[in-house]
Amino acid sequence: MGSGVRSGTRIRLDGVGRRYGLRGRWVLRGVDLDVAPGALVRVEGANGTGKSTLLRLLAGLDAPTEGRIVGRPRTAYVPERFPAALPFTASGYLTHLGAVHGLTRAAAARAADEWLERLGAAGHARTPLSELSKGGSQKVAVAQALLAAPELLVLDEAWTGLDAASREELERAVAERTADGAAAVFVDHDPRRLAGMTDATYTVADGALTRRTAAEPAWPDGPRVAVEARGPAGARPPAEAVRLSVSVAERADGAFRLDVTGPRSDAVLRALLGARPPWHVVSVRPREEGRR
Amino acid sequence: MTTALLRYQAALLVRSQRWLPPLILYVAALGIGVQGGQPVLDSLGWTAAALLPVTAWLVRVCATNEPAAARGCAGAAAGPGRAHLASLLVALGAAVLLGAAAVGVVLAVSEPAGTDRRTPVPVGPASGAGLSAVLACALVGAAVGALTTWPVLRSRGRAVPALLLGALLALVTTGSPARAAVDALVRGSQEGTVPAPLLPLAPAALFMAAATALSCALTTRRSS
Known about the structure:
Chain A: GO terms for molecular function: ATP binding; ATP hydrolysis activity. Chain A: It comes from Streptomyces ruber. The complex is a heterodimer of chains A (292) and B (224). Chain A has 292 residues and is an alpha/beta fold. Chain A has helices at residues 51-58, 90-100, 105-118, 134-146, 164-179, 239-244, 265-273; strands at residues 11-19, 26-35, 40-44, 66-70, 75-78, 152-156, 183-187, 200-205, 208-211, 224-230, 247-250, 256-261, 280-287. The longest helix of chain A has 16 residues, at 164-179. Mean pLDDT of chain A is 89; it is low at 1-7. Chain B has helices spanning 2-16, 20-33, 40-63, 68-78, 80-109, 123-147, 156-172, 177-191, 201-218. Helix content of chain B is 75%, strand content 0%.
């Protein structure tokens, strides 16, 4: 299974309502939501408004009481808290889950080690889950969702409990997945989470979902990176790199300057270097923060 | 992907050590009801009957082995219904293995004769009859377990009494495939003939399939 999911299935909620029990109150009602491949969607709302229910519907863990859900991409879900009361080591659990996600056992074991490493938990690979700290367990929950390169990533406060380095790594991983054509829907209490990358923000209130229409800068504040690259004479930068960039400018000497948000910089570099023929990256420099 | 789910659930069961209490219950029940030198078919009847509540308990163990968050992770990857199905199948498989091992022990220690101790009972057909009764009881027990655990019954306070009552009813109610299978063995022992209790297998399998379908369908309709 490759990581290419450009033709990924989309998922659509059509007039979806959800209540628990025959006479329970409606937690959500009349929800329409279309999540296209590559989309990064943020869901906001006060506690107890049904954000988690919406994410469970998207992850296929809840069935709508009314309305319907069309399309089922290969899905991975990160729960808010992952109590690791399971009789496995971290890498043992991840290998099982990787196989459940559709990898071969060998590939699953490899991916498990890779993701634990990326999240700074390689030293815990052989640690029983029951002995992991809260942050350590959360890394395992994050790793299980990422290791099979899903087409739809559903993150319910996945950053909670992670240390600063792995919070950043998870942002980068989400950026990579969406750059790769996978969709991601997330809830997080930190308004700066993945700022500048989200394609849409929705608010859940009183059981209804509304798209936030307040004028929001498409690329708000946040760390930026300036990438200078040179391609074959007369060529425009690869479409993928342009799509991921805040702005693209051609310089007098024929090189291009791409302004990129921090989390997307790796994906942009990959697009440049992976192009045929590859682009030459002249320089990569952090830009001072500031409004456009 | 289904193989991966079965492996995952089986590993969960084996490593959780929650299989130990039902196993002890079964060994104790066999210790009480099976003694060396007794008529083989009587002992096989007891072996099959005792497996029913044990299977229901194993299903409960497997269906509740994962915390809700972990269930969500596997459920999102494979579909919650399929993930739950795997846990039910692993419990049933474990119960059948346990029952088959018990049949082997019973055949080894029992007297190959009817209740009158004179009419000989051939071991080959007796083992077939024992295995099919064990299978029927395991299927009915798994159905009882599936109907009395998450997601059908979520509160422990109601689920455990319901499981016990369900297992008892499945053993004593006329028309229950488990009772029919056990009765056939006991009658065979009295009459000195080996029954072929294959007939109860069909309704037992049907009951299990219906209970499984209901239980798996409810995984996405109930709160965790």
